[in-house]
Amino acid sequence: MKKRSxxxxxxxxxxxxxxxxxxxxxxxxxxxxxxxAGEEATIIINVSHRGNSNLHYTNRLVxxxxxxxxxxxxxSSSNRPEAENFSRxxxxxxxxxxxIVAESNCNLHGSAGPASVKIKVAE
Length: 123
Known about the structure:
alpha+beta, 3-stranded antiparallel beta sheet, 5-stranded mixed beta sheet, 48% strand
């Protein structure tokens, strides 16, 4: 088989197998259920995504608190996440009940959808 034909066949097989191996980028959130008013909460956003190459990677992670963006990470083919599964930490001072919403996105397959948690203020 000529080198050119072999490369074309390899590319075709890789392209065909990507949907079987890949998935949408998904998030889960670890945060305290309650925090005293005025205290800082540590929020961990866990991202899972099968695929982390120059062609296929999580390209965005956004975190919002009560609808306001509080953190964002943008990735590119030359600045990919360190692994398929990775985490980011956000610290936030909690004054009132706060809904945290996070969503990640795959550059090829999109997002599995947002995740959310509520942090209540302890009385």
